Amino acid sequence: MEKKTLFDKVWDAHVVKSVPDGPDVFFIDKHFIHEVTSPVAFLNLEKRGNKVLFPERTVATPDHNVPTIDQDKTIKDKLSRMQVEKLRENCKKYGIELHDLGTDHHGIVHVIGPELGITQPGMTIVCGDSHTSTHGAFGAIAFGIGTSEVEMVFASQCIMQSKPKRMRITVDGELHKGVTSKDIILYIISKISASGGTGYFIEYAGSAIQSLSMEARMTICNMSIEMGARGGLIAPDETTFNYLKGKEHAPKGEDWDKALAYWKTLKTDEGAEFDIEYAYDAADIEPMITYGTNPGMGIKIKDNIPTTEGMEGSNKKSYIKSLDYMGFAPGEPIKGKKIDYVFVGSCTNGRIEDIRAVAEFVKGKKKADNITAWIVPGSREVEKQAIAEGLVDVLEEAGFKLRQPGCSACLAMNDDKIPAGKYAVSTSNRNFEGRQGPGARTLLASPLTVAAVAITGEVTDPREV
Q1: Handedness of CA 177, 375, 349, 111 (dihedral sign)
Q2: DSSP class of residue 162?
Q3: 296/440 same-domain check
Q4: What is the arrangement of strands in the sheet containing 124-127, beginning at the earlier edge strand?
Q5: Which domain range does residue 178 map to?
Q6: Do residue 274 and residue 349 come from a single domain?
Q7: Which band of pLDDT confidence, cut at 50, 70 and 90, is reported for residue 380?
Q8: Is 221 annotated as a binding residue?
Q9: In terms of Cα–Cα distance, which of 265, 236, 269 is closest to 250?
């Protein structure tokens, strides 16, 4: 019997038809949509006279462009307002489940999917958003698609897709205190580079990965895309099943037993082959931070920014350009750098565990005067939990303010922008030039590191506060 990887098992089960020497016609179980990449797809669908084939397989929420204050008022920005209104119109017209602003389950698309139990093991999931890879934490094949593919899924529930190669990254051992899943993924990307996963789908394995909560696993799969991979996934286990049990969209009764029996088969067979494998020791991972303008430019906080030694030609040139943008010099320490803003949120780290970690860290302390702190829950559910658990009180006591759910300062498509030249330590996923606002300088880190920076006003190892 052929030995298969987890990825192969899920992929092969969804191939409707294979085109010789071409892509597969690939069936999609769940389609998430938001206000930015769906309007044109709906428009083209209408022009062709097509309908949404399976509206019950699509779930919508506005997240990218929405403001994170005064969400009950009319959206001021004209384009954002129009996009959100179009999403409402289209969902109504085609009978699509919409979690709108102000409703109980509104939030970032990749936060509400798992929260509601829509995301399940063995599924294929797409969304017009690159960080769809988040859902792979459940043992699903999940990836971002373009607007024309969004239209394709509306019309046929399928897309044309070439099968990626397979990579396995194993992290074994015990994590040090103060080291989080965000540090694991920033460490891996610093080793493999921002393009090292190109053409691959990654399975994360090993005892350090298995020890993580579902929310921590989502952080890891979320950033697979930042090493160029098509997506990432983790085999489902008891942690996965316990997380899903009782969720609104999760199977119930006999259906649960049936689903569970199938989910338990979703693991890589002993001896199955990958195209490439990497292995890391959890003991080598420490709190990480980025210093440049792509997520692969990361170091341990205690280390110095790498020098240009051994670099030549265009590599050296682009490295210097990146550091110039950041206002950093090769070889200098990153620790102690003065910071202006901190941002806790996004589909990477806007979940309840992230806000709990920050609240626990800052309890009884005060944020530094030079810091502007934005804490943005990933969903209404997270917001409600943070209030119910008293986390908001702790944060406000320390000088922080919780905003309303949305993508916020992750991508500067809304009002939450970091001003030009200012430094932000952020729990989001990208540090490209201008990603958080024109001229903004972004350092990516874990929620614990962000909390430490907020208290000290400078780049700080959270273990030393």
Answers
A1: positive
A2: P
A3: yes
A4: 97-98, 58-60, 30-33, 124-127, 141-144
A5: 1-286
A6: no
A7: very high
A8: no
A9: 236
Half-sphere exposure of 181 (CA within 13 A, CB side): 27
Domain boundary among 286, 317, 346: 286
The tally of domains found in the chain comes to 2
CB 385 within 8 A of CB 352: yes
Half-sphere exposure of 377 (CA within 13 A, CB side): 27
pLDDT over threshold 90, residue 1: no
For a pLDDT cut of 90, what percent of the chain falls above it? 97
In angstroms, the CA 78 to CA 90 distance is 18
Does 248 lie in the same domain as 117? yes
In the chain, the N- to C-terminal Cα span, in Å, equals 55
Place of tokens 């001003």: 419
Confidence check: pLDDT of 127 > 90: yes
Q: For residue 407, say whether it is annotated as part of any ligand binding site.
A: yes
The domain boundary residue, chosen from 244, 260, 286: 286
Which CATH number is 425's domain given?
Answer: 3.30.499.10
The C-alpha angle 211, 212, 213, rounded to 5 degrees, equals: 125
User: Is 91 annotated to bind ligand?
Assistant: no
Q: Tell me the Cα Rg of the chain.
A: 22
Average model confidence (pLDDT) across the chain: 97
- Whether residue 260 contacts residue 238, with contact meaning beta carbons closer than 8 Å, is answered with no
- Do 157 and 242 fall into the same domain? yes
Q: What is the pLDDT of residues 191-243, one digit of tens each?
A: 999 999 999 999 999 999 999 999 999 999 999 999 999 999 999 999 999 99
* Confidence check: pLDDT of 71 > 90: yes
